[in-house]
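Before a colleague's protein record goes any further, I have to sign it off. What it holds is a sequence and that sequence's fold in token form. Would you go through it and say whether the fold makes sense for this chain? The record follows directly below this note.
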Amino acid sequence: MVRTVTDRSGTTPGPEARSALFPLILILVPVLFFVLLEFGLRLANYGDNTEQWIEAAPGKRMLNTDIGRRYFRTIRIIPMSNQDVFDVQKKPNAFRVFVLGESSGAGYPYAPIGSFSRWLRTSLGLLYPECTIEIVNISMTAVNSYTMRDLFPGIVEQQPDLVLIYAGHNEYYGALGVGSAESAGANRFLVRTALFLRRFKTYELLQNAIGSAAKRLASASSPQKDGTLMSRMAEDQFIELGSDTYRQGLLQFEENMRDILDISKDHGIPVMFGNLVSNLKDQAPFISSPQSLALKAGTVFQTARASLRGGRLQEADSLFRLAKDLDVLRFRAPEEMNSVIARLASAYSAPVVNFDSLFNARSPDGIVGDNLMTDHLHPTLEGYRMMGASFLKAMRTHRIVPRCPTRELTDEELDSLTATAFAISRLDTVLGLYRIALLKNDWPYIQKKDRKPIDQVITRNDFVEQAAYDVVMENEAWESAHRKVAGWHLLRHDYASFQRQMEVLISQFPVIVEYYDFTANELMKAELFDKAFTLLSRRHRIQPSEFSAKWLGIIHLSRKQLPEATAFLEESIRYGTNDAQTLYNIAGAYSLRKEYAKALASVDRCLAADPRFPKASALKLQLERLVPQK
């Protein structure tokens, strides 16, 4: 018997009802297919992990080192941030600052150590020692405001107390910029839609399939892009001043920043800008306009130099800025970008630190050049120091500072203490020099045909320079090179350089407690107990352990600081240790405090752990005379 389908009224759906269901089924089937496909791809861990945050250590979080996969699809080695960590659960005394920017924000060519954010973190730690200072710099090379806008909602979730922004140079050639090799078009809605879709594994699968097909179809003779990241990112190399593309770059920056400011305003998060500075006096325009009737950037630059030689400084400054703006290869932000920043800051009551004026005021003739710039726009270490100090000054002026007791220090005292405490080594400065040497040995500084062999560009005269060479040539990881150089200093018994090198690693990876332990142990072997004590104290605050408690107790005991020595040694024992040295030292501490019974019990445990421990038997005999026998 054939059964018919009926509706709730008991009647069979007619042809019209069935025809109405058909389009719905046509829609639901592919939707269900893609939902199941997405679920399956996620279950299989297909493709890249582009979640915003990852675990850096138990209870610690950092920006995902693979987050660049959201923005870069054609380059092999993607940029990543400086890997700053922060607590998953924000502490009540924490002051948390996020830094948004590009390569200058990250501290290139001295990244990850030389950035202004590291100067700022060091100064704030000295000023507010009772606070937990978290400066989380998520700036990356070759990104622009699209990346910052995309990451900002995730930043808001981390409860920042302040957001610092130094950005704008990369609007044209940074990932997804209007002139970039990684462009997704000039329409901001389409770019943001593409960014949204890139979070789905199905979209990634489709992109990978298209990319593989394109590679197979491409001619074997097709030229492949090589050279520095800077040289590979510039797709549109002729962006005329005032052109549609020029305006689109300014517009995308303004709209993305406006979104960030709207979101921060809704959540009560202060935002502070730094306006943009670049090399005016010593960086000639890269490409003059091909338009015969247009002003030539190179000609204006030479006129500016003539004005400078003639002592007409104000005229020279204006001409240098015009030459930069006429440069159709837009690696330096035009003057109008600073006008956009000023306009946005005024509309949202956001403070602006005037780096442009600061750098010029500290430069000969009042025009910034190679004195504070390593290349066309990246500051020297002194430049980054100035930026960090200026951000801090603005924070104090606007009272956006930690709510902790502050040390009373003059600006000069703070600068001096910061310079002493700032962790940087010769390896880091050599890395900076080599990165700039490689950058300037490629387009657009010179034509590719004029590139010199690497050995003519970079000289290697000792172990440190060889280690730096290995890093810039991508044969060695930054962390590994620093460990090797630290070991080299240790073998030479250069303990000051060894400690400085290890301090760099600790500054970069403050949650790797093994670096504290290794450094302190080697310093104690060299009888540099005061230096070891400082490191052990920092380590113990981060993650107390049997090792740190033991040695803090022993050093306190050597200083005759008996309450502290006893407390740390007892703590070490509570970890369940049966370490003879710890037990012997706590017996000594009890003995000096005239707690002879406790001292005798501890020395008995010491001898049980190691019957031949030096001087333990003699101490036991002394204590037995002092402890009444039952």
About this structure: The two ends are 102 Å apart (CA to CA).
